[in-house]
Amino acid sequence: MIRFICTKDYDDMSRKAANIIGSLIVSKPNCVLGLATGSTPIGAYARLVEGYENGDLDFSAVKSVNLDEYRGLTHDNDQSYYYFMNHHLFSKVNIDKNNTYVPDGTIADAEEACKQYDEIVASMGGVDLQLLGMGHNGHIGFNEPNDVFVKGTNCVNLAQSTIDANARFFEKKEDVPTQAYTMGIQTIMNAKKILVVVNGEGKADIVEKAFFGDVTPQVPASILQFHPDVIVVGDEAAFSKIKNRL
Ligand code: F6R
User: Which of 45, 75, 98, 204 is most buried when burial is the number of CB atoms within 10 A of its CB?
Assistant: First the structure.
């Protein structure tokens, strides 16, 4: 079942998403969070940091598993998702770094990297809440449009549109990663609750396709229609094509 929360703007979306995550941390201090990177959740992470700073949120028993990582990027590369998570959240709250996991992009052997990450996620005993952003092509994690829904952690060739969208973050075109390790669709779907954040007019078409169109691996996020507990928090612009159906 999907519930939609339409918010005024990016700040409103970020605050409401952070409130949902924060209320879980309060009610279940040792919860397992599935986390995402990308530009959309940055505001929500900032609100969570505020919650920690003002004494409302205690991350000391929280565990986290991230969705994805670029293959080949080292932890100190400021474009790696490892770096992103430390920068936006982990270094700013009292989470135990030993309880935070991001797929290891430095493991060259893709099969081994994916196997290791599946074992880590399994050892968590279930993700309580998975935070997701959504690509313009409907990708979740880095599960790109495909002929099938890939179940477990996998090494993907990024879609050209994704490589192009990421190019702005790298000095040279050659430095833009072309592959990534990502949690699979089944792993994402196994989370007890899923929180999707979307903002901006650019996401309006894919929001309509993913949540009101056919369920197909060509639009990976459409699988969320089959999950029992999804909340999509979006701003008015991202919801502009679905507002009459809410
Ligand atoms: C990031 C991730 C991606 C992003 C998606 C949207 O960990 O899994 O699926 O959520 O590319 O990115 P933004 O938020 O930058 O539009």
Answer: 45
